[in-house]
Design brief:
Number of helices: 4
Strand order of the largest sheet: 7-10-11-12-13
Number of domains: 3
Shape: elongated
Helix content: 25-40%
Oligomer: single chain
Largest sheet: 5 strands, antiparallel
Distance between the termini: 22 Å
Length: 239
């Protein structure tokens, strides 16, 4: 039975590629280099994959342990810093759509406040309130998508995830101390579309704490390959 060096998960025989002497871990999606021990395969190491497109790695130093004598070992904490821009080509279309949407609302309220709709000013002011709320949300999303990026950092034994410079309300990412983390997992959340079709998923890296809690540590990930890559690299920081 093969065990993944990255997440300690079980690798079934169906995931072994004998000709290439590698296997894929279904738990963390890591590619594992294999060797032979007689008639059996053994997992040797994880094949380091390049970061997926759109994810930039600024620093990646796993923790190390230096022997300081037979009584003790000195552990040096690792460092990690990855970033991802929110911008995608879809933002260009959304920018023009949002300008049209907000421009229509400005025109509507301009007519209402100037008295152009005699006797119906109150109705004109209240009628598009739902559209105003949608416009505020669209404007925030477009501005944030142009300027924001997500930064994932490990330093001094702590993992943090920040989004900025535009504030992100209701974000659930929590900083955690790595000493309190047992392992990292990836979870998907379905994002509903207006048309009801082509439902998309948003990915979150969760930390399973030693006390049994599950804490979201990296949020707002739009691609599964980004989430899986971050999971593997963060697992190395627990070594």
């Amino acid at each position: 039975m093969l065990s993944c060096p990255s997440c300690s998960g079980t690798i079934p025989e169906s995931e072994i590629r004998a000709a290439r002497q590698v296997a894929r871990c279904p738990a963390c999606d890591a590619t594992v280099r294999l060797g032979r021990d007689g008639d059996h395969w053994i997992a040797q190491s994880v094949v380091e994959a390049a970061p997926p497109e759109g994810l930039r790695i600024h620093a990646d130093e796993p923790p190390s342990r230096n022997e300081a004598g037979y009584r003790e070992a000195v552990r040096t904490g690792g460092t990690f810093h990855a970033s991802r821009r929110w911008w995608t080509p879809v933002v260009i279309f959304l920018t023009f759509f949002t300008l049209f949407w907000d421009g229509f609302l400005v025109l509507w309220y301009g007519i209402a406040l100037s008295g152009g709709a005699s006797g119906g000013t109150a109705i004109m002011l209240c009628f598009p309130l739902i559209h105003v709320a949608v416009g505020v949300g669209l404007t925030w999303f477009v501005v944030a998508s142009w300027f924001n990026r997500t930064d994932v950092r490990v330093a001094d034994g702590r993992l943090t995830c920040t989004h900025g410079p535009i504030p992100v309300p209701f974000d659930k990412a929590k900083p955690v101390a790595l000493d309190d983390v047992d392992l990292f997992e990836v979870e998907a959340t379905r994002v509903r579309q207006r048309s009801g079709r082509n439902a998309q998923s948003r990915w979150t890296v969760m930390a399973r704490m030693r006390d049994g809690r599950k804490v979201p540590v990296v949020t707002r990930i739009g691609a599964e390959e980004h989430a899986r890559f971050l999971q593997r690299r963060l697992e190395r920081q627990l070594a």
